[in-house]
Amino acid sequence: MLQVTLDIGTTTIPHQLMKLTQEIIDKIQEAMLHTKKDGTINWKDTDEIEVNLAGTFAADRFIVIKNKTKDPVVSAAPHPNFDYEKKEFKK
């Protein structure tokens, strides 16, 4: 059993780490099998990925899987008929 000590201010509380079981890994794998609307694959086995952990509350954690192969993201060109200073479309 793995344990870690979490220091919160002046209180030290022992915690048991959550393990990534095969069931959790299978659920993540299934979620990553999604495709674009045209049927092309979003994530390929050869893509380079970065895995991070994030959360906004003490009990919440989000696994962030970033596809580094798609970096840098190429943004779309500005709309030619939109005035970005006035925030309105040109006539």
Strand and helix layout:
Elements: E1 3-8, E2 11-16, H1 22-31, E3 49-54, E4 62-67, E5 82-83, E6 88-89
Antiparallel strand pairs: 1-2, 3-4, 5-6
What's the count of strands? 6
| Derived structural class | mainly beta
What's the mean pLDDT score? 79
Could you spell the SSE succession in H and E letters?
EEHEEEE
Strand content: 25-35%
**Radius of gyration, in angstroms, nearest whole number:** 21 Å
Number of helices: 1
End-to-end gap? 67 Å
Share of helix among residues? Answer: 10-25%
What spatial order of strands do you see in the largest sheet?
Answer: 1-2
Largest sheet: 2 strands, antiparallel
Low-confidence stretches: 1-9
Spell out the key features of this protein.
single chain; 91 residues; mainly beta; two-stranded antiparallel sheet; two-stranded antiparallel ribbon; 6 strands; 11% helix; elongated; disordered N terminus
Commentary on this structure:
By secondary structure, the protein is mostly beta strands. It has a domain at 20-76. The protein contains one helix and six strands. It has one helix at 22-31, and strands at 3-8, 11-16, 49-54, 62-67, 82-83, 88-89. A two-stranded antiparallel ribbon has the order 1-2. A two-stranded antiparallel sheet has the order 3-4. Strands 5-6 form a two-stranded antiparallel sheet. A hairpin with a 2-residue loop joins strand 1 (3-8) and strand 2. The longest helix has 10 residues, at 22-31. The model is unreliable at 1-9 (pLDDT under 50).
